[in-house]
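Worked example 3 (structure in, sequence out).
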């Protein structure tokens, strides 16, 4: 049995990473754990990311660090006056979880280069440390969640290029929120994303998928992979 760590990053904030993480968790086989290294905005957010994943999938979740304000983690930590773990500590904790789970999904915060600690460590650093330190029988994958509309080609190419510059070849792309009535830009982007990145589009998630109940989400999630998006309530 091959165990794996799947790092889920986004091209920016608000592109649908949490719902994409839930969809990946819902369709993974075996024992799955979803880890959020750093969650910000806990003082104002009615539902934290791990709670949303648990609500949608029933999978086990773990949040390592929580910060009050909805800011980049390093900024939130400095403003709160607290010390937070360095990326290397998060990597060590995640590695320790692998023997007990077939898949460990790691959801980032914001985009790939958002600082996860006050020493400048990013999700890119975390992914690179994991890839360079896990046993040979553990596979590390990176999935990039991107938007559907204008600007996504540039943002996605930049994210994929940064990963490749560190020797990390992404497993593929997930479009995090596909509108019920896509326009010309969205339709063209869906064709162009694989062309400009050289990566497959693994899944297209319909807008509103995060509002489904667990039964509906689990039933629909497999259909979002490898096929055009359908309405969330279909």
């Amino acid at each position: 049995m091959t165990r794996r760590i799947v790092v889920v990053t986004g091209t920016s904030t608000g592109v649908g990473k949490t719902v994409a993480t839930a969809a990946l968790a819902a369709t993974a086989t075996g024992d799955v754990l979803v880890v959020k290294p750093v969650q910000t905005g806990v003082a104002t957010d009615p539902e934290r990311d791990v709670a949303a994943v648990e609500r949608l999938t029933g999978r086990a979740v773990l949040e390592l660090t929580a910060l009050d304000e909805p800011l980049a983690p390093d900024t939130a930590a400095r403003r709160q006056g607290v010390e937070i773990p360095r990326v290397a500590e998060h990597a060590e904790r995640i590695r320790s979880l692998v023997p007990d789970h077939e898949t460990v999904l790691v959801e980032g915060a914001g985009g790939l280069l958002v600082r996860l600690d006050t020493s400048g460590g990013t999700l890119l650093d975390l992914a690179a440390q994991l890839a360079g330190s896990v046993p040979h029988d553990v596979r590390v994958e990176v999935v990039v969640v991107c938007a559907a509309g204008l600007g996504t080609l540039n943002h996605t190419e930049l994210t994929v290029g940064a990963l490749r510059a560190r020797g990390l070849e992404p497993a593929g792309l997930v479009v995090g929120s596909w509108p019920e009535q896509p326009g010309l830009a969205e339709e063209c982007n869906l064709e162009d994303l694989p062309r400009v990145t050289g990566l497959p589009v693994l899944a297209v998630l319909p807008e509103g998928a995060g509002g489904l109940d667990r039964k509906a989400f689990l039933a629909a999630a497999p259909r979002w992979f490898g096929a055009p998006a359908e309405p969330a309530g279909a």
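Notes: Helices lie at 17-27, 49-57, 73-80, 87-97, 123-131, 152-165, 184-197, 214-220. The two ends are 35 Å apart (CA to CA).
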